[in-house]
Amino acid sequence: MATYTFGREAGHRLQVTLSDEPDKAAVQLKERLEELELTNDHFRVSVEGSTVVVAGDSAVQDQKEKILLALGNVEGVTAVEDRVTAGQEGIVPRFLTVQDGETLHDVAGRAYAGPDAVKRLLAANRPALSGADGIYAGLVVRAPA
C-alpha cells in the first residue's frame, strides 16, 4: 500500500465537494473512471477528507497507474491511497508534476530523451491526456520507464 500526493487546486472538477459529501464524491470518482474506461466492478473508491482510497484488482500495472492518476488529478484531492493489486507488486510508478509554465514538450523532455518523447508521454497517459492542450500546472502524469 502506498500513498501518492497531488495538488489540491488542479484537475477535473466534481459536482460535489469531497469533504462535504464524501459518499457522493466517491460515486462521481467511480463514474470518472468509467468515463475513461479504466475500471470495472472490482474497484472500490472511498473518500476520507481530501484523500481518495482505491482498492481492488487490476489486470496490469499500466491500468493501475492510470487509475491512480485519474483519481488524483481531481480538484480537492491531495492524496490517493493505493490499495490496488496488479500482480506486479514491487513496481513503483514514476509520476511527474507539471510545473508552472511547462509545456508538454518540457515535461516529455524531463521524462524521456529523444525525438519520440512527446508521443511516448501521450501514449502513457491516454485517455486522460490526449494532446498538448490538456496539460496544465499541477497536473500529475505518468512516465513509465
TrEMBL record:
Pfam families: BON (PF04972). Residues 15-88 form the BON domain. InterPro entries: BON_dom, LysM. It comes from the Bacteria. This is BON domain-containing protein.
